[in-house]
Amino acid sequence: MEFRFSEKVAYLQASQIREILKYSADPAVISLAAGSPAPEALPAKELEELSGEILAEEPGIAFQYGVTEGYTPLRDEVKKILAKRGIYNPEYDDVIITSGAQQANELSAKVLCNEGDTLLTEKPCFIGSLNAFKSYHVDLKGITLEEDGINIAELEEALKTGSVRLVYLIPNFQNPTGNTMSWEKRVQAFELCKKYNAIILEDNPYGDLRFAGEDIKCIKNLDTEGRVIYSGTFSKILSPGIRVGYVCAHKDIIQKIVVCKQVADVHTTMWSQMLCYRFLKKYDLDEHLTKMRKVYEHKTGLMLSEIEKNFPKTVEYTKPQGGLFIWCTLPEGVTTQQMIDFCTTAVRDYKVAIVPGSAFSIKESDECRSFRLNFSTPTDANMVKGIQILGKLLNEMFPG
Amino acid sequence: MEFRFSEKVAYLQASQIREILKYSADPAVISLAAGSPAPEALPAKELEELSGEILAEEPGIAFQYGVTEGYTPLRDEVKKILAKRGIYNPEYDDVIITSGAQQANELSAKVLCNEGDTLLTEKPCFIGSLNAFKSYHVDLKGITLEEDGINIAELEEALKTGSVRLVYLIPNFQNPTGNTMSWEKRVQAFELCKKYNAIILEDNPYGDLRFAGEDIKCIKNLDTEGRVIYSGTFSKILSPGIRVGYVCAHKDIIQKIVVCKQVADVHTTMWSQMLCYRFLKKYDLDEHLTKMRKVYEHKTGLMLSEIEKNFPKTVEYTKPQGGLFIWCTLPEGVTTQQMIDFCTTAVRDYKVAIVPGSAFSIKESDECRSFRLNFSTPTDANMVKGIQILGKLLNEMFPG
Hints:
The structure is a homodimer.
Chain A: H1 7-10, H2 16-23, E1 30-31, H3 44-57, H4 59-63, H5 72-84, E2 93-98, H6 100-112, E3 118-123, H7 127-134, E4 139-146, E5 149-150, H8 152-160, E6 164-169, H9 183-195, E7 199-203, E8 228-233, E9 245-250, H10 251-265, H11 270-282, H12 285-310, E10 316-317, E11 325-329, H13 336-350, E12 352-353, E13 355-356, E14 370-374, H14 380-397
């Protein structure tokens, strides 16, 4: 039987990352391709204990339906944390719990964009968000991402057209590049969006994972009227498998997101929400984050020093101050196809999985001679081995 | 600040049921408004024990990312169960795990319908599905639901237009009416959809909860080519709070749903999926269902006998053979507004929550003089008390 699919999904492809993740189910593969937090940094023991308490004390809440907006005690805790950081303004904002930040970003696009509306993203951009936006048939335009954030002149050019509804940014330790937007650019981007009446969707999954440099305030900190939608998550600091994120935005936007979340999954798993709440109540979040950052600092340092030792000098790479990713770029002249061949050879013949940069392109025709490395998932030994293998292969495939 | 929302969500309203659910957070309210399974029939103790085993034995799987298609052992178990029932045909079907059947239904509409495409539903229809479909700006048309299923002549009239993409049906113990579609009508509906090339979305959340009458095969049992999408759930038999459902459909449709699920929530909570898997492996599902059905049989019987004793004779009501709901209809002449007033008075002044039938209408202008009762959630004592209060109020507000 032949099916006619809706136009908005007809051309959507499964993410190349997830395809490679499936590859890395082979235990022999060293995966530098994932976006998973470091397993040793997650509080699995604490969560196990809290889970026992939840199911012994409140099984009725854990196992029955909850309200779409989220488990009230958790919502209140998240509001407190965000208010303390100057992100949640109770005068006009509201906060709800989502099934990961992925849901927060997807539903933001759904409630704000008609088919054909323009949505701006960093170029390159996280594939999960790109596909979420594409699935609503919006017109995606990429703004060149530099070391200190998007190119502001390009942003203004795009905004000037007047057709931009939403500007999607990951200002901290961006996925896939690891780059962080400077404070100056955050202010400039915010002012421009105000001038041209666009909404900013600020995705901050990695902000808590800064292990070097100085914290930079969020774009949402500049907001005085509800122009910025802010999404966050417990995936990188507690556990991704429990699927708990949150979104802080103007009450009117939240109200529409709630209706869309209601029809999407009714509510987020109760147990997961209760787990986050109990963790925040029982443990000191800052102390937990300090411990996590040490793990990440060590892992990044190790990967950077191995890259330095093993990769050809012609390969450029970012030196992130947080997050999960390093972005490596080959010299001019290397083609997208050569890059994909390199990544395929690495996983197929040498059992090292990495993601070709083209996975993060808006259009298939965009040239990309980069690849993404993840330093949080592998063990130290595997990371060293993986980088050595990649170094050898780079020298072979791209000599001199 | 004023926001311009997308056309597809601009007119969506939060479900009246969930608004009333919030009301019933007041512990003094007797809720006959929910769609929750009977708490005493859920295996909370067993799930608690299984959860302990999962987190002790496989925390790495429970707490890290999983694949979008679902936890493989659970997918395989669901396939086995559905194959045994003649619902899953491995030649062309595939099965994935979803975050409740709600997600399965929503994503089916997303992948198959463009804005403006026609989607047929029973009239009245489950509000959660109606809003899911509306959120993709489809053209919803209702087909009159009779005691033995939709009116087949009306169905053919609608299909004849050639614009129908999807026909959404809850053949077993429908929400909100409790009605069950006869085998004859299932065959007729299937043949008509084949003739006019429409896809059927068969939602079967309550099928396992039959406590009287003979099982009727699913429409999906008639499928020979992938014309029927079948969605099911663990919400009514294990726990709704864990958010686990599944969808069985042609591989090509499943592939598109996977891409859309990936951008919706990456994957369903791992712990929830592992819980369902371990329950299916350790316990006898049929034995568990037999126990559940006894509870439901008792509760329905009690509610029906109380209605018989307390409601005015002019009120008609369905006598379901399974599921969670009874549908009560007042005599001709009673208006939608009078019905809403009755439900509002009941919850506000007499602390008994029920759902006005108009919550299940496609258009606000559709007249509806019915209300929905849920018999699974209340205790016996509260149910008796609630029906007595409603009976008294009915006699007062709609005297003979």
